Amino acid sequence: MTTLSNDDLLLQRFYTHCSERPSAVYLTQPHSGGQTTDYTFAQVLEQAQRMAAHLRSLSLPPQSKIAMLSKNCAHFFMAELAIWMAGHVTVALYPTLNRDTVSYILEHSDAQLLFVGKLDTWDDELKHGVPEDLPRLAFPNAPKTGDTRWDDIVSRTEPISDRPVRDPDDESLIIYTSGSTGQPKGVLHSFRTISVTTQGLVEVLGATKEDRELSYLPLAHGMDRWLSECVSLYSGCHVFFAESLTTFVADLGRARPTLFVSVPRLWLKFQLGVFSKMPPKKLNLFLKIPILSGIVKKKVLTNLGLDSVRFAGSGSAPIPAELLAWYRNLGLELLEGYGMSENFNYSHITMPGRGRAGYIGHPYPGVDCKLSAEGEILIKSPGNMVGYYKDPARTADAFTADGFLKTGDRGEIDSDGRLRITGRVKELFKTSKGKYVAPAPIENLINIDPHIELSLVGGSGYPTTHAVVQIAEDMLPRLSDAAFKSEVDASLHALLGKVNGEIEAYEKLGFIVVSSKRWTIEGGQLTPTMKIMRSKIEDLYAENLDAWYAMGKKVIWD
Question: Which end of the chain is more exposed for a tag (fewer CB within 10 A), N or C?
Fold first, then answer.
């Protein structure tokens, strides 16, 4: 990775694109069930400069924290640019948070202003967490909040006449991590940490202005903030947005992305969608016929909206080796990535052609990785955070004496330098037989089953482990059909045997429980990025464990 110059900072890179390609479309926003609005670089710059002028007029102290509460949309990008131009720091909140967490983040971050954007639960939940005395502004696609609207401000405000630059070590943004325990932590980054990591990613991907992306994973989370917003600011590529879950297929088809990253569950759903139209045996047969193979591969990827993809990524959890092989057979190599908000995701990636099933991959350029004596993964990355906002003690505890970030993940490194995640340091539990079990690798094996959305493995103090699972939401209505439920039950029995055949004897599952309780973000069982809150879920079933172990069944429907 080359040395970062001031011209490579994200604001400066954006200005360059505005100067060189002012009429090129930068952002495409869908609305009204299929219509779209395009924004060129010149239009985005003008909107941001007008809003920056308004923010300057408020005479806030330098590097004030300004919050954004919105789903992904073009005005999220514009607002962030305006905040940076005005000399301030962005604090993005997940649009799925509950009122208590919204209240905590706005108070803890010292937010001086809140942009309210595209939201589903503003009236029912979110607005009740916003302090009444906190000034608010509303994006064009925000619900009716009674606040001054974005368009009203930019229509009456003259744009700033300059193109402000920020010092590399100025604060740029705070990401509030969802965390699996306690209140979220504010991960503070500088313009240096978000720019140097973006430069490194762009070099690895070979990203250019010709690329296209679909922004749909939460922008409040570090991953899509980096992959869609930061990469596009740096490379000048075209970013499309998704309107809703129901329009996602159409949104993907419109974008025809060349760079596309998702999570294992969605990659599995894509596969199941293909199988619903063409049974696996028939598809495999066609793929073995030389002349027909290329036509079928092209058709499958085109129907998925992925026919133009040159880089496909997967993150947040390990992806099954069988699924990797299936996509590779279609001509799409899925590359896995590993990182944290604390290093702005800049840690490891599967290098094309050098992947190994079960391993994340190699460090990005400029990243050092080692394991502690206890097997914890330690990372020294140019993206390592400035620190946890207003928490120097926790910041000090997050790093080793020689400057490596403590990830909290346990891992292994093979002879080629590839990293494998083996679980969380603090998630180990001991069975009554005195053996320690790491639940995450077992859960990853369980989650391969297409019937299962999520799982939790437990068994502390019991002779065997067990798993509690959530049936995939799109299959729930079909469980009223006795034949389908019987099919799922048989599949879970088979899954139990398959998983037990792949793990150590002391880890073997005694039974699987199908939970009748749904785990939700609102209920506190899931983080906004859909990771399980282990202790919260375990509390739901604590009083049932003795009875479940006494049943002696392999599959229990709770």
Answer: C
